[in-house]
User: Fold these one by one.
Assistant:
Number 1:
Amino acid sequence: MASAEKPLRVVAWSTGTIGRHAIAGIDARPDLELVGLWVSNPDKVGQDAGRLADLGRDLGVLATNDKEALFALEPDAIVHSAMTDDRIFDALEDLVGFVERGINVISSGPVVLTFPDGTGLDSYVDRINAAGAANGASLHVNGIDPGFANDVLPLVMTSLSQRIDKVVVSEICDYSTYYQPVVMQDLYGFGRPMDYPAMLWQPGVLTAAWGPVVRQIAAGLDLELDPVLEEYHERIPSEVDLTIDSCEVPAGSMGAVKFGVIGTVDGVPRVQLDHVTRTNPAQAPHWPQPAEGDGGYRVEVFGEPMMKVDFNHHGEHGDHNVSGMITTAMRLVNAVQAVCAAPGGVVVAKDLPMITGRGLVAR
């Protein structure tokens, strides 16, 4: 299907586990044109985007680490998928800078910007909104989780409700084939001693990372939550030595975790996010299990009627962690048109129109 619209000019920002799928997605959409590619690795400079994305063909766009050269292309949008978990404030400065230059941004992080109300980032949000008011550029942060599986999907389901008592969104996954050593070892603490002070288990960090999910669902339901979100986590050691894609997990080191963030109204739980993260499917059999395969997402709406949806995915030639990267990338790519058309400033998922895979039906 050919698009009658002039394609939007897009720069892809990174070629990592998400970025290479974003490049493929931009190339697949007839309403988008890849015009530039940023890389942090100097060894990738000068290589063709198609090769870096494992497409097996050239796209005619060469990677660069020259930011000014990319800004000079005057792109309509940047699809930003660079790692932000270990450089949050540097990443925030990058994103603000893009918007201040009048470029729309669709990013996979920092996840606190999926719904920044109450995150303490008002200074950055104010700069983004001020720039957007002046030049019309927008910023949208999303993905699959935090993102579609626990903001758009549950809010769409509540459109069928007559009464809502509680909304619970869950990720239940085996992370053994997930390759992100920094995330797995330093943020989660997998493979580390049980007393290792991993970042996620420090007070307030879960609220910073996944609190925006809880607050966005509440905002979509017109709920005023109690000021402080509740956090919990339960970690267990691995019973056996494991080798996973990101690291070694010796017996006795951290092997699995169940954690969550809960939003209450007058002390009553109303919106809850749960994660069950294993490094082997046999761990913690008493914890919630995926509906099928090695993992997926679950949305439960308690009330009238009672509803539950299990959302599973897997790659055509890979496992659920491969498809997790694809779904994250494509949520960004497929939102480019809607974000470019949105009012300037921070744009959150609940305020965007329906986003579809327009133009992606196999030809």
Number 2:
Amino acid sequence: MKSSELPPAHEAWLPREHPLHRPRHGRRQLVALICLLAFFSAPLSSWLFGARAEKVENRPLAEFPSITEGFGFFTGLNAWATDHLPFRQEAVQVVGAISGGVFGEPAQLHGSAHGSPVGAGQPDAKPPIEENVFPPVIEGEDGWLYLGHDVSYRCVPKRSLGEVISGLRRWREVVEASGREFQLLIAPDKSTQHPEHLPEEYAGEECSTEQRAEFWRRVPQATGAIDMRAPLRRAAQRNGRPIYHDIDTHWTHEGGIAMTRVLAERLQPGLSSSWRLAPSRTYSHSADIPGLLGRQRAVPIQAYSLAPDGGADNTRFRASDFHEPLHLESAAKPGMNTRPVRMVGDSFTQFASPYLAAVNTDLTITHPDNVALDPEAAGRLLAEGEVVTFELSERFVAGGRYPMLDAEVADRVGAILARHPVG
């Protein structure tokens, strides 16, 4: 009778002819291990040889996870390695070309580090690493493209709408308590301003539509935010064309001008009555959405001259993403605001900055990320102004994605403003 007990030795140490022998590391395991090491070491080795990762999506690259995050260190490695792979843009283009040219359908390029998870409607649910529900791009009618985050950020917010409202209110409180004027402007999503080109059906349609309606019903009234939807509609009707680009997520320069006019009139009613606007140069701008599908596309940009006093053009075109604060000065003229303005703005402000510079004598713009990363530096910068203006994107506000919405950030900046009051 044979014994049913296992041999005392580990199966890897048994003689090869033994029926229970199994090598510790088979060939497949070894190949998998080599591939794993190559994947995670590729960003570092390519960096040593001079290659640098570039943004493919309209968001910062994923940061290397901290060892203090526990198991999150290991789950975060995938996002970091994916974002920092060399030649990632070229790979996306190849996949897009194969999918479209061979199979006749758009590539489903998921894998955003900040992707959108299952479990929509849970305010503080953390998105998983892999985006497996919402596509990065929504392909609409007539060739229109929409950023998938317009939908995914609404369906899976990081903060509830109540928390967002509370955070925005806190900012108004700390700024106005220091004697400064506070302006809050929400740049609408392209899908909000031009929903007519959205497809009949798309992932997240129901939850994003409901959240959009709730957002615009509550946020402007509860926070005093400027609702730009009506001014943008009037500008589009006046110009006879859409106020947003068909393949870019941002508004046109006409949208930037509408924003500039609204902010100026809030500071001083009638200030823009002497302005003279005229078309100036045109230039090509690399559209941000096609790259997510592996395509390279550009849109023509029509820029304008703006003479606040009706005379000479006073615009200032300075390319900046505001991660390094941009300071713009101009001699005072009629039709200009002469109070120092310190502004927090994102990519929508890039299309407005030439015109903001034309009508403000002293303007500095910084990015929302800077405020959360270094509240003390942000506080010192905002303390230089008599007017504090926020331009924030709808998708990031609705999704609670701005770290600066935390009350602690507002309080730390507010403490600095309080030490340097105005008036």
